[in-house]
């Protein structure tokens, strides 16, 4: 085995950072120049078609799925290099990706748990951004409590027949496929009897209804399955093993891309600091203290993320701690933005919401989606601290 020195690794990482930085500077121009800073939470509607074209441009240049093995179209990039990519991407103010669900969630799940046939069928479309994905987890009666899923699927010959409803399904209205957690064992409950199905969205048995949010946008959706079907072999893992696969997907969701997210958070905080200085709000000792605490909190987020990504780190509960840290920090940042604006932050019309008002409204959901604070704390209590399980009705 070839040994690489720390100095060689540092040189390689520096060259990689320069390569992606130069490529972004050169390519975020021309037809893509106006996409800087577009998209993101609460703004997924912005320049969607143009951002899709940008994602496919990235793919053609080999900048998608960096950590995947080379045989599946990736670069086999190290964790360090993947972190560098997300940091430089965020620093360049490049547009929010429309292919996040496929690249960051579904792809790694299929790589880890899928069959060879599933890898051959789905990974090329994810890498090229030829097919878009959405996540069919939450339901009206099973939001953060995923084990309460009621959507059913029964095997009928060579097809799974699916009935039920999902909610808060991001980008379902533009997705080609959905990975769906459904109950496939009659009479099962909680974590048992669930399966992880790959379901085509463009079929008569599926109806998508957008949900208008406080920000006035509608990237979340309700999805109704009425005898929708998918092929019998499009179950990831064994039938009934869906809970384990779903938890694997959630671990990927809270992985390397969070470092890029933190760069965007840092930009938001810097802009709020600038606003506070311009308006004089920074002279208020309470506001100044909150700005300082936000600065410290952001460094805590980064330190935790880097620690949990180290190869020798035991990740038990790490994803839940990460979700608690960033979700609460970002929600508090939205409140801080409103405090810095003062009374002017309360004035808006239906079509002229400011970036700070949108940040405040959308960040109210940060502590709910992707697993609420309460669920994350239960996971830490039960799986890390070994405390008794919460009593259930």
UniProtKB/TrEMBL annotation:
<keyword id="KW-0560">Oxidoreductase</keyword>
<dbReference type="InterPro" id="IPR036250">
    <property type="entry name" value="AcylCo_DH-like_C"/>
</dbReference>
<dbReference type="InterPro" id="IPR006091">
    <property type="entry name" value="Acyl-CoA_Oxase/DH_mid-dom"/>
</dbReference>
<dbReference type="InterPro" id="IPR013786">
    <property type="entry name" value="AcylCoA_DH/ox_N"/>
</dbReference>
<dbReference type="InterPro" id="IPR009100">
    <property type="entry name" value="AcylCoA_DH/oxidase_NM_dom_sf"/>
</dbReference>
<dbReference type="Pfam" id="PF02770">
    <property type="entry name" value="Acyl-CoA_dh_M"/>
</dbReference>
<keyword id="KW-0285">Flavoprotein</keyword>
<keyword id="KW-0274">FAD</keyword>
<protein>
    <recommendedName>
        <fullName>Alkylation response protein AidB-like acyl-CoA dehydrogenase</fullName>
    </recommendedName>
</protein>
<feature type="domain" description="Acyl-CoA dehydrogenase/oxidase C-terminal">
    <location>
        <begin position="240"/>
        <end position="385"/>
    </location>
</feature>
<comment type="similarity">
    <text>Belongs to the acyl-CoA dehydrogenase family.</text>
</comment>
<dbReference type="InterPro" id="IPR009075">
    <property type="entry name" value="AcylCo_DH/oxidase_C"/>
</dbReference>
<dbReference type="InterPro" id="IPR037069">
    <property type="entry name" value="AcylCoA_DH/ox_N_sf"/>
</dbReference>
<dbReference type="Pfam" id="PF02771">
    <property type="entry name" value="Acyl-CoA_dh_N"/>
</dbReference>
<dbReference type="Pfam" id="PF00441">
    <property type="entry name" value="Acyl-CoA_dh_1"/>
</dbReference>
<feature type="domain" description="Acyl-CoA dehydrogenase/oxidase N-terminal">
    <location>
        <begin position="14"/>
        <end position="126"/>
    </location>
</feature>
<dbReference type="GO" id="GO:0005886">
    <property type="term" value="C:plasma membrane"/>
</dbReference>
<feature type="domain" description="Acyl-CoA oxidase/dehydrogenase middle">
    <location>
        <begin position="134"/>
        <end position="227"/>
    </location>
</feature>
<dbReference type="GO" id="GO:0050660">
    <property type="term" value="F:flavin adenine dinucleotide binding"/>
</dbReference>
<dbReference type="GO" id="GO:0016627">
    <property type="term" value="F:oxidoreductase activity, acting on the CH-CH group of donors"/>
</dbReference>
<dbReference type="InterPro" id="IPR052161">
    <property type="entry name" value="Mycobact_Acyl-CoA_DH"/>
</dbReference>
<dbReference type="InterPro" id="IPR046373">
    <property type="entry name" value="Acyl-CoA_Oxase/DH_mid-dom_sf"/>
</dbReference>
């Amino acid at each position: 085995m070839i040994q690489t020195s720390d100095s060689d690794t540092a040189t390689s990482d520096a060259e990689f950072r320069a390569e992606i930085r130069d490529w972004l500077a050169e390519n975020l121009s021309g037809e893509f120049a106006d996409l800087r800073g577009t998209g993101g939470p609460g703004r997924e509607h912005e320049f969607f078609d143009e951002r899709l074209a940008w994602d496919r441009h990235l793919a053609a240049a080999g900048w998608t799925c960096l950590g995947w093995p080379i045989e599946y179209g990736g670069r086999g990039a190290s964790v360090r290099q993947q972190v560098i990519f997300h940091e430089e991407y965020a620093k360049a103010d490049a547009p929010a990706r429309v292919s996040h669900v496929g690249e960051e969630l579904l792809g790694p799940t299929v790589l880890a748990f899928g069959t060879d046939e599933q890898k051959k069928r789905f990974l090329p479309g994810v890498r090229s951004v030829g097919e878009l994905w959405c996540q069919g987890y939450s339901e009206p009666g099973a939001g953060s409590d995923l084990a309460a899923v009621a959507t059913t699927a029964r095997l009928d010959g060579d097809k799974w027949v699916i009935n039920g409803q999902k909610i808060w399904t991001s980008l379902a209205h533009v997705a080609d496929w959905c990975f769906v957690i459904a109950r496939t064992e009659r009479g099962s409950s909680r974590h048992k009897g669930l399966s992880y199905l790959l379901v085509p969205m463009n079929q008569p048995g599926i109806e998508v209804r957008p949900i208008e949010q406080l920000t006035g946008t509608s990237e979340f959706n309700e999805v109704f399955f009425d005898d929708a079907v998918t092929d019998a072999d499009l179950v990831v893992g064994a039938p009934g093993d869906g809970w384990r696969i779903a938890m694997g997907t959630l671990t990927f969701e809270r992985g390397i891309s969070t470092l890029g997210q933190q760069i965007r958070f840092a930009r938001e905080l810097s802009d709020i600091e600038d606003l506070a200085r311009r308006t004089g709000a920074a002279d208020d000792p309470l506001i100044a203290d909150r700005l300082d605490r936000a600065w410290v909190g952001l460094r805590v987020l980064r330190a935790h993320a880097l620690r949990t990504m180290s190869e020798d780190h035991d990740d038990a509960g790490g994803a839940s701690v990460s979700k608690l840290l960033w979700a609460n920090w970002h929600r508090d940042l939205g409140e801080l933005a409103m405090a810095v604006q003062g009374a002017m932050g309360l004035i808006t019309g239906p079509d002229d919401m400011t970036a700070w008002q949108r940040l405040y409204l959308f960040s109210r959901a940060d502590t709910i989606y992707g697993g609420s604070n309460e669920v994350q704390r239960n996971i830490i209590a039960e799986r890390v601290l070994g405390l008794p399980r919460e009593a259930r009705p």
